[in-house]
Design a protein that fits this description.
By secondary structure, this protein is α/β, with parallel strands linked by helices. It has three helices and four strands. Strand 1, helix 1 and strand 2 form a beta-alpha-beta unit. The radius of gyration is 14 Å and the shape is globular.
């Protein structure tokens, strides 16, 4: 006999980022995103419409979150990044990995 614990999944979790994502803010935001991933969402949406800047530390964090969500069968979407943030994502070539809408 085998027993498995089935975790209920949250359909969609949305996080709205209203500040710069840089080395100083990444630890706090990463903790928030870990809590969101622990809800096992089928879709984790990060709204970047109010985020003025992302740096390499933030991009690394977003990729880590993407891997965790993907490994659990979910998906991560970055919503509405500003032109500056979108350009940074393009230059880092993560727009080929992360879904940006």
């Amino acid at each position: 006999m085998r027993s498995e614990t089935v975790r209920p999944a949250a359909p969609t979790v949305e996080i709205i980022v209203t500040e710069e994502l840089d080395a100083a803010t990444v630890p706090r935001v990463a903790a928030l995103l870990r809590d969101a991933v622990d809800l096992h969402p089928t879709h984790l949406r990060i709204d970047l419409s109010q985020c003025p800047f992302v740096d390499a530390a933030a991009i690394g964090m977003l990729l880590d979150v993407h891997r965790r969500v993907w490994s659990e069968g979910g998906r991560l979407t970055l919503r509405d990044p500003s032109p500056r943030v979108r350009r940074t994502l393009e230059l880092a070539r993560v727009d080929h990995v992360l879904q940006v809408e």
